[in-house]
Write the structure tokens for this entry.
Amino acid sequence: MATEAELKALMAASLDGDAASYRTLLDRLSRRLRAYYKGRLARVGRSATEAEDLVQEVLFAVHLKRHTYDTRELFTPWVHTIARYKLIDYLRRTRSAASVPIDEGAEVMAQDDNADAESSHDVRKLLGRLPEKMRCAIECVKLEGRSVAEAAVRCGISESGVKINIHRGLQSLAAFIAREDQK
Amino acid sequence: MKTDDLVLMLSTNVEPIARGRVARTISIAVIAGAVIALGIMLVALGVRADLTTTRAAVFLLLKLAFALAVVGVSLRYLIRLARPGSARGISPLAVIVPFAAIALLGMLGLADAPSAHWNRMVVGGEWLECLLSIPTIAIVPFAVTIFAVRRAAPTNLFRAGAVAGLVAGGVSAMAYAFHCTDDSLPFVAVWYGGTIVLCTLAGAALGPRLLHW
């Protein structure tokens, strides 16, 4: 189990732009969040797929709100507060939604706690709903791993435009996901 | 979507983040709100004409001290509320201190005067103008402050909204003080304090809707 000090060091490196640390951090967080949400949702009779939806919502939130973490503070309370905020918000949003049919129960319970865990969202389909510039910027930089300069040429916008479009695009994706959960 | 794929996507080409952005954004918003509030006061009401007298200047400074104390304390608390799980900054109780101080001064002012004057000291000449002006001038600073807080990550939306209203009320009172000619401590305590509390309540009511993310 990762400790506060480890996670905090990873977060500090991530904020400096260290992609490898950031990847490790998000990976560890997703495991912890999965366990947290499975436990919480089981108590209110919800399924494990929903837990994965929430894990991904929080990963988006951590990413989009990472500038609100102050490195002089503890990291675990920061994540935990976001996780709890998103859980309460999720339960409120999905209150009227039907719960999982009973015959699916066995299948849902059979899902392993592994890292292959999948949510109900299709990121490719969601990307298609974004405006062209946002989609292009995210595909180039975040999916194909090209530099911001390359993306600027390919998408026909400035480098700062690429960064803004990535940020806005990820914000929109997170909003799409939240809206899909409502259904 | 696999969570692994999402982790990979988010961590690819991650940009470095400047430190202290939350505090900077919110502080700049509040300063901008203060400039706008002063502008509204100058255009719509004008600075009081008798500022050359010592009594007027002393009371202006006193009102400004109260308003700035409210803004200073509540701004620091607001920055804390805008960051999830933050323990830094000041205790929530600190926001009460300026109000307690002005209430105490107001009561001392009343105790010092014959009871026949109390009514005039509390109600003043322009209580209605004060009651309407401070909440009205606070609208734009409130909007600017909320906009800045939204860019951070408030998780107690009710409280963050209330404190944003408190900050905006303080900023507005600071601007209104330049116009206000009611120079008595009980007046400041009741009408400045009261209208700032009104702004706080309005902020609390609007917070959950405006700050949701």
Residues 19-43 of chain A form the longest helix (25 residues). Chain A is about 70% helix and 0% strand. Chain A touches chain B through 58 residues (CB under 8 Å). Confidence is low (pLDDT under 50) at residues 100-112 of chain A.
